[in-house]
User: Fold this.
Amino acid sequence: MNPPMPPAVPGLTTLPSAYGAAQTLDRLEALLKHKGIHVFARIDHAGGAKAVGLPLPPTQVLIFGNPLAGTPLMQSRQTIGIDLPLRALAWEDNAGASWLSYNDPDFLAHRHGITDRGEAVQGLAAGLRALAAAATAL
Assistant:
């Protein structure tokens, strides 16, 4: 039985994961590296919270990207650089269900008024969808 979906957030895609937060990001990181996509950082929000005595279910962010994919978007509108490189958030809710969330590239392009890079945006969106699906599925 699938857990109930968390509330929708505009521009955010969220998928259920068959794995815990850390393992979901391990899988995503391995897929990214296999595709030659650079992983810039991994942030453990739950570890940071624990260090200051605050509870937080497992919550980690992976920051990744490829200049061949992101630079054309920044050539159209440099402000998209605030949203690039891309990020994926793996998290567990209070019921113990695991999720993977990421910003939809179509939403980011719309947010920054990028209208001349449809093919690049669609390619980025399709690649991200495929990677996220592979990282979260059994």
In short: Strands lie at 12-17, 38-44, 59-65, 86-92, 98-103.
